[in-house]
Structure formats: C-alpha cells, structure tokens
## 1
Amino acid sequence: MSSLKFIPFAGTALRNLFRKPVTTSYPFAPAQYPERMRGHIEIDIESCISCGMCARSCPPGALTVDRAAGTWTIQRFDCVQCGNCVNVCPKKCLKMVPGYTTPDCTKHSDTYTRTTPLPKPAPRPAAKPAAPAAQAAPAASQAPAAKTE
Amino acid sequence: MAKRSIVPFGPQHPVLPEPVHLDLVLEDEVVVEAVPSIGFVHRGLEKLVETKDFKEYVYIAERVCGICSFGHGLGYCQTLEQIMNLEVPPRARYLRTIWMEMSRIHSHLLWLGLLADAMGFESLFMESWKLREKILDMFDATTGGRVIFSVNCIGGVLKDMDETMLKNIVDTCNEMEKELKPIADAFLREYTTESRLRGLGVLPADQAVLAGAVGPMLRASGVAYDARKLGYAAYGDLDLEPITSSDGDSYARCEVRIKEISQSFDLIRQAAAKIPAGPIAVPVKGFPKGEYFTRIEQPRGEAIYYVKANGTKFIERFRLRTPTTSNIPPMLNMLKDCQLADVPLLILTIDPCISCTER
C-alpha cells in the first residue's frame, strides 16, 4: 500500500484546464475521413454490365439491378457498408468512398440509369463445332430476350 | 431472519450498457440471491446462417457484437478454414493478430471508462475514452470502419497494410502507452478508486474454475489460462504469457485488464516487426462439408465457435458460446452476500456483453 497516492489524477485534471479541446467543432470544422473509410457506395453506371452479381451477394438485399431498363438501385438505408458488392463486381464499376450519406426522415433509394446501351455480348463458343450458324444465333436471340425481361 | 424483499435491477440501468434483468433478493441491504433473465436483444443471428451464403455470413457474424466484432468474424472464418482445409497465408495471420490486439485495447479501454463512470469518476471516464478514440481512428484508417471492420474473409483478409500504416500503428501504440500511464495510476494507485475496488466481489480460483469463468475474470483469480496460447493466427510465433493476479477481487480484474492493454501494445509491436511479405488471402473453392469447433480469446474471454456444414452454400448449424455466457454464473456467485450498492459495479467487472450472449 506504500505506493498509494492521494490524488494522482489531479495533475492530469489541472493540465486539461489549459489544453485545447480534443474534439473538433463539427459542423463548423469539416470532418476528416481516412482514405479507406467505408462511407457509401458509388457506381460508374456506364461501365456496369447489369450482371446482378452485386445484388445477389448483398447481405441485406439493398441492391436491385434491372437489366432491361439498365438501372441500378440502392436502398441507402438498408446498405450496411460491408463492401461485398465492391469485391464481387467483375467490371470494378462499384467503389466505396469516404463520407456518410445524408440523414433523412424517410427511407429512400437512389436509382442510376445507364444511358449507353450494353455492348453486345461476345459470342459464346459453340457447343458443337459442327453447327455453322451457331455464332450468329446468340446475338439474334439476345435482342428480343432483353425486351421481354 | 430479516424480512426479504425483491428489487428488480435492469434491463435499463445507468450502469448497464446493454439490457440484462436481475431479480435481487435482499435481506435488508444485503443480496441473498440474484436471479438473472436475459432475452431482451435476441436477434436470431445464429438461425440466419441457414439462409445466407456461407461467405456472406462473415458480415453477419461480426455484427453479433459491436465491441468484439473483429473476433467474431475471425472465429467464424477460422472454423470454416479448418473445415475446408484452407491454409491462411502468414501475412494474413499476422494482420489478423494486429487487428485482434487492437480490438482488445479498444474493448479494455471502453471497459475502464465504464468502470470509472460507474464509480462516478467522470473525468477518468473521459480520459479513458479519449485514449480509445486513437484506436478507433487507427481502425478507421486501416479497415475503413470504426466498429464494424469487414476485413475478415474465409481464407485470409480483404485489406493489406503497407509499411507506413504499420509504422503509424506502432508509433500510435508507443504514444498511447505513455498516455495510459496516468490513467492506470488513477485506477490502481489512487486511494479513492482502490478503496472502492479492493476486496469487492472476491472470486477464489477454485470457485472461478467451477463456475466456468473465462478471460480476465478467470485470470484475475490466479488461473493462468489464455486461449491465445493455443497459437491460432500468429500468436504461436509471438512471445506471450497470460497475465494473472491472485486476489480475485474487482481491483484484480481491473489490474489484469490494464496490464493486458500493455501486453497488447507489446504484441502489436512484435507482430509489426515480424510480419512477413506475401499474399493476404487464398481463394475459396467449393462448399464446406463437415463440422469443427474453434476457440479464440476475445477481449472478454474465451469464445467458442461451432459450424456444421453439409456441402451446400448454406451452413446447417452455427453455434457461438460467448464469454459473457460463461461469466454470468460466477457473477451470480459474487453477488451473493454483497451490498445492494455494490451490485452495479460487480456486474460491470465481468465486462458484460449481452448482445453477444443473446445473438
């Protein structure tokens, strides 16, 4: 017990009286976010191929991809910022950027629509090399299928 | 015999960060018996494993708790890696160790702040949490999140740290170690805090083992048991000795946790010095089939993860035994014959995490 002090914290408390606050006066001073911060998802919609991998692998189911309409929709309030969609995206058109989304009274979603049409898919290798018209067939069948979806 | 009365304690109480309810049977001011009831924050996260892809479930596993989140992700991933015979690259194991130790520092500093708050020592509470902010900032810079990290994946980790980041972490640890000293002094060497904690809620070693105490609670009773000695992640390569104290009272539990913070600084420095170069993850092929148990040392104590997989992308059963589940029976032992005014502090000394317990 000989090592006991009566008020060892007094020095720290007194010094704190003359120190600047450790907190910043947000919103008067802007918030500083580190580069890796998982703030919210952004999409480069023109590079998106509407494959739907992000929507299928989203744990809370916050993403919807409409291939026919060329839209990508995110429920901002359902997204948990896990970054799984960024990891699975084959075109790397999704990215996680710093900064929180703005608060709101109602749950809203953001929809992004692609303006340029999807490039035609590369012809699939024919299952049987004997069929000569196999290369033209997928491209021809793709167009009406996209309309009906 | 004095007249008995029952005082309900919780689920909402200023000292409790999370909801647990106790019926305290009192004789005058002395607690004769405490009857716990939990179930206020049950979310069915274990059941969710049956409907989520096993790779996606990592993100749910780490949301079991806001403080031990890294550990839960790690425990789940390690279990599946064992089932699928995946060899995690050494760099990933070291990165996991560094993040795990940062989690421990963050959890213990949070607990120290709550303890100071429970004693009414507001400025000490602020100082503890001020220090904890630095760890949270480091998490933010390295993983992208302050509380939920999402860096674990089956087969390794998702994000790497470069040399600058590792140096920053070591520098911050050195700086924090200096800043921890006055805080540690205020907890361990100050007359008021010592008189509040010393001799309160004594748990002898035999009782602690019998009641199934884990983590700092067990080590404070003098039992040198630490699941990190099993050598998972990179702990096998690091110099580590469990920190114990023989008194078994609230003061000992506080002392063990403060010393564990210093130990974690040391482990981070060791890991940062030894970290090898190389890949950070191995690809996962196929679906898991089989079952496995894993034990890891969470900041609050030993946690057990069990997974039974059936060869599909959905797992059949996931079970998580959290440290607080094990620490509730010894807590009830401690509460017997204590004063009513000491109950909040005693509950706090087990470092309860009810959200983990109920999942």
## 2
Amino acid sequence: MSMFRAIVAAVAMLAAVPLIASASGDPAIDTIGSPVSPEELAKFFVIMPDGEGLPPGSGTAAAGLPLYAEKCAMCHGENLEGLEGTGAPPLAGGRGTLATNKPFKSVESYWPYASTLYDYIWRAMPFHEPGSLTPDEVYSITAYILSFGKIIDEGTVLDAKSLSEVKMPNVDGFYVDNGPDRLIYRAQGGATSK
Amino acid sequence: MPDDPTKVMGRALLEDGGYGTRSQFETAVKARADNPNDMTSWSYTPLADMKGNLTPSGLHYERHHGGIPAIDPAKHFLYVHGMVDQAKKFSVADILRLPSITRRYFIECSGNTYEEWAKPKGKNVQFTHGLLSTSEWTGVPFATFARHVGLQDDASWVLGEGADAAVMTRSIPLDKMLTDGLIAYGQNGEMIRPEQGYPLRLVVPGYEGNMMIKWLRRLQVSDRPFMTREETGRYTGLMPNGRARQFYYSMDAKSVITFPSGEMLLPKPGHYEIRGIAWSGRGRVQAVDISMDGGKNWIPARIDDTPEAMSSVRFSCPWFWDGKPAILQSRCIEDSGYVQPTRTELIRLRGDHFFYHYNAIQSWAVAADGSVSNVHV
C-alpha cells in the first residue's frame, strides 16, 4: 500500500469509528461489551477456602436438623449415607478408608474444605429447588452436616469467621498433579508391557 | 418405499421444514446411562456408527449436573470480572461481533471408560468409550476477552460458571486460558446445541469435559483456585496411599477399535477392515498400532485423516480373519512419545480406585463363531 493510500485509509477508519471517552483508548475494545458495577456483580458468588465470599449470617446444627430433615434427607438419607436410587452421594462416614481397598468418599472423609460445602449447598441445593436457601439456612445445614461427621462440636455457631477456620479431616489429602504419570517412564515395564 | 425410485417423482425440497433430517434408515442414537436421575446423568455417543471424524451434533455425548437449561440468547450475558482492570459483560450479540476462530477438538468426559478398571463391563463400544465426541468449535479466544477487561498482575486462575441449575463451576489456570481457551458459540457450523451449552460454552482443548463449562455465564479472574466441589470432592483421582491427585486436567492419549467391537458378529472368515478412533489431550496423535493377538505383536495402522492437536483421528488396518479366536487391540502413540498403557500398567501407575482418566488399551475378543466381546487380558 502506498503512503498516500495508507493515510487515506487511516483517516477513513478514524472517521468511521465514533469517539467514546473510555479507559483503553482502543475503539474496537471500547465499543464491545459493557462495564459492570460491583452492585450488578453482587448477584454472583463463589466461596474460597479462606472464607472469601461468605455472606453475613450464622447457623447451628440444632437449627440445621429440621432443615436437613425437610430438604435433604429424602435423597441424602437420615444418616447422611446417600440413598441408593436417588443418586445422592453420602455426606458422612468413611474416615480412615481412603487408603484401603474399599475407599468411602464422603464430605466427612474426603472433602478438603468446608467452604466448598457451603458454596455447593448455596449454589445447587436442594436438588429440586436450587438456589432457594437463605445464607442462615446454608450455615445451619452446613453446621448439621459437619457436626454429624464430628468435624465441629454440636454447639458451634457457624458464620463467616468460624466456617473459614474449620479444618476438614482430609485437608492434606490432595496434591497437584496433571500427569502424565511419571512412573510410566520407569523400569518394571514400559507402557507396552503386560 | 418405491421399488424403483427412478419411476416415481421424489419429494419436493424443504418438505421437512427446512432443517433437514437424516435418512429414515439411519437409526443410531445416544444411549442413556443407567442412573437414577436423568437430570444428573449422561448419554453415550454411538461410536461404532460414526462415519467420519466429527461427531454429528445431535449424537454428541451428554453429561449434565442439573438438567439442560432453557436460555434465551437475547437475555444471556457473559460476565468477565475479578482481578481485571474493568469488569465487563458481553451479550451474545457482542461476542458474535468479535473476531472468531474455528478449531476441531474432541471433548471427553473424565469418567469415560470408568467402568473398565475392575472388570470388562461395557458390552459395546458405545458404553465403554462413548463419552467422547469431536466437533468443530467456533468462538472467540479468551485472550481477546482478557484484552477487553485487562488482567491484573497476580491473575493466575479463572473460574468458569454455567447458567444451569447446578451452576457448574471449575477453576482453570490462566496460562491455559490464554494459550487456547475458547468461548465457543458454534458447533459444526451452527449454534451450539442446548445439550452442549447453548448459547456459550467454554472450550479448554484436551482437558476434562467437565471443565468445558456449558451455558457459560461468568468468568472470574483470581490469584488462586476456587476449590469448587467439582475439583475437590469430585473429579480428583484417589491413589493407593489414600491421597488424591488434584487438577489432573489433560485427557491422556487413548484409542479404541470401533469395528469389530463388542456385540458385533463377523459373518465368516475373510477380509475385514479394522477401524477405530484415537485421540490425545496433550498433543497430536503420532501413530496407532494394532495387535491381533492380545498385545504380543503390533503392526502400524493407517491414519485416515490429518492429526490435529487435541483432536481425534480415525485409523484403519486391513485384516484377514482366519476364523480362529483373536484378541484385537489398538494403542495410541502421541507426538510427545507417550504410549497408551495397558490396563495392567495403568493399575500399576494408579491403583484400583483412581476412577477417572481411564485410558488403557481396550481388548475385543473375536470368538471362533465370529462374535465379539469385551475382555481383559
């Protein structure tokens, strides 16, 4: 392209793009997508292991018991065992089984963070009424499940602070490893051995 | 049906409504998993019926954690926020205006073939390997959105969140998102099907299917992973020592023979063409080997299309069946040099309770009567 034509093209492009006062100064960026305020983002949540994202409120196992009975037990069972035929996983039991030949994975035995339990209940439970629980109800049901699994005392008041301090039994049971399996490159047979 | 289609006029165009339907003689469909609740369940792609490398969109396997949501694209937004300079939301119309790319990638459920760890369970290849499908995906790279919102210095993770009843969430490393993360709206030339995430799906090539968040509504940038249910209590691999491998993202090299395969019957001895599918979540398929004797001897198969990164290929190998019992196997060799392991080897690597990411060599036994069944050797 000649210098003249390049200048003409550049001027034409500038003229064609509306001038908008904006952060980036790049019209292609500033005219697509809309800035959002913290207020608009407040409808979303995700709870981190350190408690970031936990809402105000509190709950206890005592308050959680009737809620659990009404909203959870029909799938997860009276003893948090997970009822066969519903597809609901167990919430308690199985401590000490992970290294055996019959590992039993439950919230109690396997989940590393209490924050995940709060997040998931608030996010997706009860299964047939997802997102219908108040923060206090979620604190209470969380407290009931953790108390049933003897992870917290029966009388513990769960709130943003106390929940972030809960230490799950299997908190050290995970390590990051995206493979491939290193062992495959060691003796005792390569990948093609039987 | 007319006896002679040349002697009667055919049907007029568009009589089927303008979208098109397959021949009434083609009947392959997805198979339902035997689970108690169809809202959190999966369906299998009929792999043995595939006639090419791309899976027809209507036959793409499904995995849902809270049913298939109904979403009006005019009311759907993608929010990008967190550790960014300017949080933004993008309408579907906005995203359609951005520069797009088109790539062919497979998606495999990390639970594909999970029933084969202990004993040969799936009766046919649809049930053993059917949580695998390949599509041509069209969309906007995450890097484009990153430029639109601006990434802060410590940004290193991105949460993807779906607009389904499970409000599905996964944390994805920012490096991966900036390498080839794709906000897809197109699948095989049309808008993504509702079961596959309409109108937006996150595609992270080669990674576990559950990370490819369907009905994508939100990307939150952070300096650490979010530790959601799907990356702690689920989709982690338990090792024999009782500890679990976390963030095992990539689907390792794998292959399966789709013809002949379980529940088929070879009518008589003679010439056959062994056919199958191979794929790798870490690179390209370099080669595929075939064994007709349960893994004692191997010969190279023919690769029937051009291998692409994090995509699948079809392979084939001519075979003269002499009528004697045979055990057919395939093994995928990825371009890194990684070779698909045997089941014995995989169990040596991971024990019996890893559950996910089963990528061992599949064995099909051909009996003297020509019947084919799933076996372990």
